[in-house]
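Hi Y.,

Following your request, here is the sequence exactly as I used it, all 446 residues.
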Amino acid sequence: KLLKQEESIGWLEKSLNLLDRLENNPESRPNSDELSKTRHLRASIIKEILFCNNEINLVEGSENYLNRLLAIDKKNEVYRAVLHHVNGEYQQAISVFEDQADWHKNRKIIEQINLGLIYGDSLLKLEKFAECERVLNEVINSAEKINTPIEKKDALLAQAFLYQEKADFDKAALKIKEAFDILGEPIGRQSIQKDMVYAVYYFFAGDYEKARQSFKAVATHQNANKKYLSSVYGFMGIIALKEAKYYEAITALNQSLKNNPTKGEGLNAASIYNNLGICYLNLNLDEKAAGYLAQSIKIIDNEISKNKDKPQALKELAGFRILNTAGIAYKKKNSRLLFSLLSNLKAYSQDNKKLNAYYALLAAKSLFIKTSVDNSDYAKALDLFQSAVDFFYLEQNYGKLGEVYFNIGKLNFVLKDYEKSKLAFETSCRNYEKSVDKKGHALCYY
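Below is the corresponding structure, written out as tokens. Let me know if you'd prefer a different format.
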């Protein structure tokens, strides 16, 4: 309850050892009625250990505990989701909950809450916001049935994280305040958690100075574990990256990797490698950048191979990572890297209309930095732009529509077809007027 999971695991393991000694000693061996009780107690202890391991991202030993739990009762198959979550295998965790449709039946409410939080976080990690909101609402309803402030605080914080991801910062702030008001004055690691939650909130809200101060408070706290430190340095690295302080970002991101509990594996590590690659790309160290970016995609590919039944969300994640990097290569006019990334992107954009539209836009724009261009290139670019228009029109993404028509205007201008160019620029302006992209709007008028 005080977030001292390492100590908690120590006491729980002592309990298991005592049970083993009790059952293996002929003089104190329980009778059949007592044995049923000890089996139930053993299962409860192992469940708590798995929850603790999940909280501190402790992969080592988790699979062994899961096997011991399933040996006691196969009805605990839903706990396989906890193992997947601690390994960063979020799609596999979701699949377990979906396959075990009645996972919440005949379980204590606190157990339902803890499992529900893992289900909700797995959905959140893969940006399945509507499903996540439904699951977390069920968790909140369960928490309100019993007077357990710690569990209710955790459920409210999970809702706050959902609103942060959806950029609804007013709702997120209210949920964070409500969560910590339940506890009163935090003690021990609860104060670290409070600093961390507010730091992440400030980060997503764009107040980087307040975020930096709160992250530093977490990093200097005497009870901060590796999970906290990895997150702190990861966020500090992203802040430095956004501020174009690339060497500062690299130092922070390497610290994040050093403290990463998954030892350089899983989606969190993939994100760190991706950000390191972007730093080196901005420093014009292209070969080093390519190495880190390849490592990031390799990890995601590995996650895709583990989730062969439902790889779409992970393919989209990998695709947009490549796309974002390709966008930087385009801005820096690094045509060699750009065309390499666009070639890799094709494997991820198949059967994904959204990714295909963004790919089409960037692939068509790449014409402007190509060294040698012929008429077939222009025709292909116009076809790509049109396919992007079709998608963004359906999505009512006016900023992207403005960008597409702006580039169609540029292309026709190069071809000296000024009537079509003017028409495209006018269409671009009308779309930019409906968006928040003032820079694009101004460029279009120019």
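The radius of gyration is 26 Å.

Thanks again,
Q.
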